[in-house]
Amino acid sequence: GAVVSQHPSRVICKSGTSVKIECRSLDFQATTMFWYRQFPKQSLMLMATSNEGSKATYEQGVEKDKFLINHASLTLSTLTVTSAHPEDSSFYICSARVGEGETQYFGPGTRLLVL
Amino acid sequence: QKEVEQNSGPLSVPEGAIASLNCTYSDRVSQSFFWYRQYSGKSPELIMSIYSNGDKEDGRFTAQLNKASQYVSLLIRDSQPSDSATYLCAVNNQAGTALIFGKGTTLSVSS
Question: Which of A33, A63, A101, B49 has the highest CB neighbour number within 10 Å of its CB?
Fold first, then answer.
């Protein structure tokens, strides 16, 4: 199957700082990547859809100025959590879609802890 | 509001039994259906996809789709303790641009 990586796998930061998370498709080109957030014991929540070369589409309730998404190439999308606060602490997971199909392959996730 | 419903469980089965996981969806025009497995603290991994009515088998896993009833299920034969995880059902949205996930069913297989 398609391989998606994320970096870093875990990050601890102070409140007010910004954190960048990278999502890479390793063996395929991904025109579309997705960013999810998952709080403990809760379901996956789609934050935004990222298309290469265009602006991301954010889900209702997700602040686009706080969660900056850049999809500059067919293999890399980044999520920057700006001015992070403790309530942003969560498990952030990206996924990538292969070609025009609808199957999504997930990265291993990034666990963010904001102190 | 398009929805995907799953019983949160936990569903407990003994080792070697068949585990049956169910999912219903509200959007009648949905065409693509997926089952993902998520171990605690890990990201989801794809188990199976199904697009046509009927059964699709892959090893110990069988996905069943009934579009008329808007119902998709996953059967796990010869359940193993390593199958203990949360199983997520996902359905494509109307535009086909994203997946809508259920909240997942937690499966516990006891040895």
Answer: A33
- Number of Cβ within 10 Å of residue A3's Cβ equals 12
CB-based contact A108 B43, cutoff 8 Å: yes
Confidence of residue B1 (pLDDT cuts 50, 70, 90): low
| Contact assignment for B99 to A32 by CB distance below 8 Å | no
> Could you give the CA distance from residue B55 to residue B57 in angstroms, rounded to a whole number?
7
Element (H, E) at B46: strand B45-50
Q: What is the mean predicted confidence (pLDDT) over B77-84?
A: 98
Cα A103 from chain centroid (whole Å) = 17
Of B44, B99, B104, the CB nearest to A102: B99
Of B46, B48, B53, give the one whose Cα is nearest residue B31: B53
* B34: phi then psi, degrees, rounded to nearest 5: -135, 150
Contact A6, A109 (CB under 8 A): yes
Mutate to test the interface with B, among A28, A43, A98, A113 (most CBs of B within 10 A): A43
